[in-house]
Design goal:
mainly beta, 8-stranded mixed sheet, about 0% helix
Length: about 220
């Protein structure tokens, strides 16, 4: 990556998106995601942004492939269209243990046991189809921790409150696309693989695995 069982219900209000959570560069020059010091990192691991029929099963999966617990307190999940941020999810004081998953998902998504879950406030159409971007953004340093450009190449998007523009492509953009005619998702394959080249890391998976390892 370049620079990414208790249950309780809380309400989190982010800058642009309200959520119900169940807990179980930049500066004018496009730059790709950079790794944080010490190698402690999380990645965007699986995304389902388009379903057959009504989009009521959308999710974004975050995974900790490192050998240390990672605090998400400074991070936000930023969703962009082709030019700018349109929604943001804040993680609060959530931390991910090694090998753990965090799901940001519609209410209809069944998540594997043991994963931490944040539910979108809207039941449908929370993530835009066709072409867009997803970023794990460090709000303290205004840097990308991980990013995915889907449906095309997004190299100069703006993030609310941050200077300059951001490149959401690692290496070469993936050509894999989610589909509204076939059940599936975009997934890092094998699970958690991050070679700094989206075209190599991301594949279309015909069997989504929300909150669990990718095939």
């Amino acid at each position: 990556m370049r620079v990414n069982r208790c249950e309780r219900t809380v309400v989190i209000v982010g800058a642009t998106l309200a959520l119900v959570a169940v807990v179980g560069g930049c500066n004018g020059s496009p730059a790709g995601p950079a790794a944080p010091a010490g190698g402690h990192r999380v990645v965007i691991n699986e995304v389902d942004y388009d379903q057959v029929g009504t989009d009521a099963g959308e999710f974004i999966e975050i995974y900790n492939p490192s050998d240390s617990t990672v605090s998400l307190a400074a991070l936000a999940l930023v969703l962009t269209d082709t030019v700018a941020e349109y929604a943001r999810v804040r993680f609060g004081n959530i931390s991910l243990a090694p090998g753990a998953y965090l799901m940001v998902a519609d209410s209809a998504v069944t998540v594997a046991a043991g994963a931490t879950v944040i539910r979108f406030a809207t039941a449908t159409n929370s993530v835009r189809n066709n072409k867009g971007g997803i970023a794990l953004f460090d709000t303290t340093t205004n840097t990308l921790r991980d990013a995915l450009s889907y449906g095309g190449t997004l190299t100069a998007v703006t993030i609310t409150g941050a200077p300059g523009t951001y490149n959401l492509v690692e290496g070469t953009a993936t050509s894999a696309q989610d589909s509204n005619t076939q059940v599936g998702s975009l997934a890092r394959t094998p699970n958690g693989q991050d070679t700094n080249d989206a075209s190599a890391d991301w594949k279309f998976a015909s069997q989504p695995t929300p909150g669990g390892p990718n095939p």
